[in-house]
Amino acid sequence: MKLAIDFVRAQFPALAGEWVFLDNAGGSQTLKQVADRIHQYLMTSDVQLGASYEISQLAGQRVKAGARVAAELVNAEDECEVILGSSTTMLMKLLSLSLVETFKPGDEVIVTNCDHEANIGPWRNLEKRGMIIKTWRVNPETLELHLEDLAALMTEKTRLVALTHASNILGTINPIKQIASFVHERGAMICVDGVAYAPHALPDVRQLDVDFYAFSFYKVYGPHYSVLYGKKAHLLRMPGVNHFFIAENDVPYKFQPGSSNYELSYGITGIGDYLTGLAEVHAGQAGGREVKGLRDAAALAYECFAEHEEGLSARLLDFLNSRSDVRIIGKKESGRSVRMPTVSFVIKNVKSSTIPPEVDKHKIGIRYGDFYARRLIEDLGLAPQDGVVRVSMVHYNTLEEMDRLIRVLETLQG
Predict the structure, then answer these.
(1) Phi and psi torsions of 21, nearest 5°
(2) Looking at residues 35-46, what average pLDDT do you find?
(3) Is the confidence at residue 284, as pLDDT, over 90?
(4) Do residues 37 and 269 make contact, with C-beta atoms less than 8 angstroms apart?
(5) Are residues 235 and 341 in the same domain?
């Protein structure tokens, strides 16, 4: 289904400028609908929640509406299963502090070497509490995580396996449903970082059967805010991190010290507005497909995203694959079922740090480095080269923008 790209780009005011944004895995551009909702909240309902007067009641309804949208986007069974917070890093830290209270010294947690540090560091820090931390490493040849390697690490003391849904360096999509089943069969829980996945594909925590799942809205066209999903049964039994007088069954509030950010919570509803509007535009292309509710609208919108983004990836990967001096770090093919449109590469005998400044001159934003996946970059021996060059596309990018980047890259020789 062809994406209505003119409609899409009109929803992002920043795209009217002269810059091409290809650093989207670091943060996407923000929807006008999101900015409008935040403005509306601050200008018409910026009061404390929970009071009896009318504006306070309106404010509470708006904040709650944001949580409902977050719950629908991940397909949570209950709205109380979504915890909103400042960043995925902070939410993972809070989760680790709560969850460790249910563990015993000698219990084991398995992390990967290919995750963003947000889903490694908090768990590694539990060594100070007597936990044993093991590392599930990507195969250096395939650059994939293999279940047989996980099987060798798991024991009857394994309590949690933490990994990414899609690598923010490799772009590779991990088979989370299969891994979750494998982990659950062995009596452990699974915690998934969906930050690099959620901008491109619609998470479904029930279908995946994950215990915890987190991502950041500022990489999904929204405010600088994040969500952590947790199965209700887990959240109820875990101790909270809020004030002592907050009831243990008061979920998610017991995990939100200082409460949620009101205006950013309401801003999330702007993402829902966009996905609904986009689905309405494309419903006719889908043979008059009936769209029922936000979840259905989001599914249709993301179908359009995936097809369009696959074309963007193919354009860039075809060029990179044609260069004998370029090494792609990750899968070389563009198929949407195996990778996200986040492409990392290095050029032979060229420091990665020297490339983006040359591209900057053409008003194209890309980036180099380890992208907080430092352990992976070090294990792949890429730190001396200043990490990788990363081009990260989303659905509002165009083939013309990819060609503009390629023309610049053609001038850079190894």
Answers:
(1) -100, 105
(2) 98
(3) no
(4) yes
(5) no
- Residues 15 and 63 reside in one and the same domain: no
CATH number of domain containing 67: 3.40.640.10
Query: Do 145 and 191 fall within a single domain?
Result: yes
Asked whether residue 298 is assigned to any structural domain, the reply reads no
Whole-angstrom Cα distance, residue 196 to residue 344? 13
Digit-coded pLDDT (tens) for 118-138: 999 999 999 999 999 999 999
SS3 of 64, please? helix
The DSSP call for residue 138 is: P
Residue 138 in domain: yes
Domain residues for 228? 34-269
Shared-domain flag, residues 103 and 189: yes
User: What residue type is 30 in one-letter code?
Assistant: T
pLDDT tier at 281, thresholds 50, 70, 90: very high
Residue 57: exposed, middle, or buried by beta-carbon count in 10 A (0-12, 13-18, 19+)?
middle
Question: pLDDT at position 15, please?
Answer: 98
The string of DSSP codes covering 272-323 is: HHHHHHHHHHHHTTTTS----HHHHHHHHHHHHHHHHHHHHHHHHHHHHHT-
Q: 208, 243, 269: which is the final residue of a domain? A: 269
Q: Tell whether 26 and 45 lie within a shared domain.
A: no
Classified as helix, coil or strand, 208 is: helix
What is the model's pLDDT at position 287?
67
Are 160 and 232 contained in the same domain?
yes
Residue 5 burial (C-beta neighbours within 10 Å; 0-12, 13-18, 19+): middle
The pLDDT value recorded for residue 286 is: 61
> Can you spell out the DSSP letters for 215-254?
EEGGGTTS-S-EEEEE-HHHHHHS--SS-TTS-TT-TTGG
Give Cα separations from 47 to 44, 54, 57, 288 (angstroms). 9, 10, 9, 43
